[in-house]
Amino acid sequence: MSPEGRGIARAHLPAGAGGEAFRILHVSTGNVCRSPITERLTRHALAHRLGVTAAPELIVESAGTWGHEGAPMEANAAAVLADFGADASGFTGRELLDEHVIRADLVLTATRDHRAQVISMGHSAGLRTFTLKEFTRLVRAIDPATLPPLDDGVAERARALVRAAAALRGWLLAPDADADEVYDPYGAPITFFRSIGEEIHQALDPVVTALTGVAANR
Q1: Half-sphere exposure (CA, 13 Å, Cβ side) for 78?
Q2: Is 217 domain-assigned?
Q3: What is the pTM of this model?
Q4: In CATH, what number is assigned to the domain containing residue 71?
Q5: Does 171 fall in a domain?
Q6: What domain range is 118 assigned to?
Q7: pLDDT tens column, 113-148
Q8: Which residues in 107-135 are b (16+ Cβ under 10 Å) and which e?
Q9: Those residues with Cβ within 8 angstroms of residue 62's Cβ, 6 or more apart along the chain or in another chain
Q10: How many domains does the chain have?
């Protein structure tokens, strides 16, 4: 199993200033298509950019609002991950629980409905819950120079990024109603899964760059 496939979706990152790990939770409906793709692509990107060490500062997980508990991800979702060189092995679906939201430092959802469902669970989740594309849009507007350097720890940088994004949310609105949605490919042919995978990959790229301070190799 590759590094990003071990444990409970951990990305092992360089040690910084220490402190508690930062947890990212990806949420969709069944936790067999969109959120598994997003979880594993996030882990793959983090491991690729920052390498593997003994200091797990970021933990990346996923769950579904109507999660198929214990189910494998859809075969087409696994095929999409293979296209990107990401590890699909060892995945099992989970139903979204209060404890997942309570522990998460950042919740990224596939759609606005998912975001609303997470926020409705309480636990002061509003300031740390965004759709994936919403968070991408906000992150693009944040000056990286205002974030703590990676030497201070990737978890500290990530927490500062979430605070900055939350502060911007009311000022940087979506251009249209569909701009923040990642549509469900469940039951669709592999071509649609691949288009959704590319959509997710493009949305994640600036997020991972902002989290790590390391741009993808082009």
Answers
A1: 11
A2: no
A3: 0.89
A4: 3.40.50.2300
A5: yes
A6: 3-212
A7: 999 999 999 989 999 999 999 999 999 999 999 999
A8: bbbbbbebbebbbebebebeebbbbbbbb
A9: 9, 25, 26, 27, 28, 31, 35, 36, 38, 39, 94
A10: 1
